[in-house]
Write a structure and sequence with these properties.
The structure holds 2 protein chains of 2 kinds.
Chain A (H helix, E strand, L loop, with lengths): L2 H9 L6 E4 L3 H10 L4 E3 L7 H9 L6 E6 H6 L1 H10 L4 E7 L2 E2 L5 E2 L7 H4 L3 E5 L14 H12 L5
Parallel strand pairs in A: 1-2, 1-3, 3-4, 4-7
Antiparallel strand pairs in A: 5-6
Chain B lengths: L8 E4 L6 H4 L6 E2 L3 H13 L4 E6 L7 H11 L4 E5 L5 H16 L5 E4 L2
Parallel strand pairs in B: 1-2, 1-3, 3-4, 4-5
The chains are: A alpha/beta, B alpha/beta.
Chain lengths: 158, 115
């Protein structure tokens, strides 16, 4: 399965959920599939999408979905374990595992050596094709993403 | 930065210099790394909370990427309480550059605990 098809599958059932997309092609493909104010597109700080999702899920009643890649998950294996420990019921974490760093040209990761699911049973791993992807850059500034997202997830929103 | 008691979401990575403060905070969540702690704080910020992150200066280096590529471009301010160690030898260099590093990062929202 292509990664963008996996993102389409996840998003087809999404209504009011907050969605956090990891750095690079995952954020770009989420934007291409379904842009909405309750999506947060992380452009830098690779490995930190799940941490942001945890901070949201622990503080809101809303359901939160985090889309990570295998490279980002490998960078922050500790966060998978923290997620297992804290395990807020309103947080779903997907790892879209293509066994490579797609955004930077397809260099291999070592994701074949780790069983993410046994490390954190509350993580769902979806194996996707080892492709780079070709979604264009997101035409929003980080400041605009931040402001739009904060307004859209604020507990005080109208 | 805000006074401690105004914060309603507290995370961090411990330091013996911070033990007495952290031990009194019921809502403190221990994290595995300092950048992860900042990421949880960012989620809490978006959820309308006032987060606080505890760390020691040795871990400040782990936060450079999330400060430069998330907090700065996205316009997010997170309060940090940083214990400053400059001895023994493995703490000496970071102890010497901690305030310069924060200046270089143009980071204002912090308090240093030197004791």
């Amino acid at each position: 399965m292509k990664r963008i098809e996996a993102i389409k599958d996840i998003m087809k059932d999404v209504k009011d959920e907050i969605v956090i997309a990891s750095t690079g092609m995952i954020a770009r493909e989420l934007y291409a599939v379904c842009d909405r104010p309750r999506n947060f597109y992380m452009m830098g700080s690779m490995g930190n999408a799940l941490g942001i999702g945890l901070g949201l899920a622990l503080n809101l009643k809303d359901d939160v979905i985090v889309l990570s890649g295998d490279g980002a998950a490998l960078m922050s294996l500790g966060t998978l374990v923290l997620h297992k420990k804290l395990n807020p019921k309103n947080l779903k974490h997907y790892i879209l595992d293509n066994n490579c760093h797609g955004t930077t040209g397809g260099q291999p990761t070592c994701s074949e050596e780790v069983d993410f699911q046994s490390l954190a049973p509350n993580t769902r791993v979806i194996k996707v094709d080892p492709e780079k992807g070709d979604a264009p850059r997101i035409p929003l500034s980080p400041e605009d993403i931040s402001k739009r997202f904060k307004d859209a997830v604020s507990p005080d929103r109208a | 930065m805000k006074e401690h008691d105004e914060h309603d979401f507290v995370v961090g990575v411990p330091c013996s210099k911070l033990k007495d403060i952290i031990d009194k905070i019921d809502l403190y969540i221990p994290c595995t790394r300092e950048d992860e702690a900042v990421a949880l704080a960012v989620g809490a910020y978006f959820a309308g909370k006032k987060p606080l992150v505890f760390l020691q200066n040795s871990g400040l280096g782990n936060t450079v990427d999330i400060i430069t590529s998330l907090l700065k471009p996205y316009g997010i301010e997170i309060d940090l309480i940083i214990s400053v160690r400059d001895t023994p030898a493995h703490h000496a260099f970071m102890g010497k550059i901690t305030e310069k590093l924060l200046d270089l990062l143009e980071y204002k929202n912090y308090r240093l605990i030197k004791q």
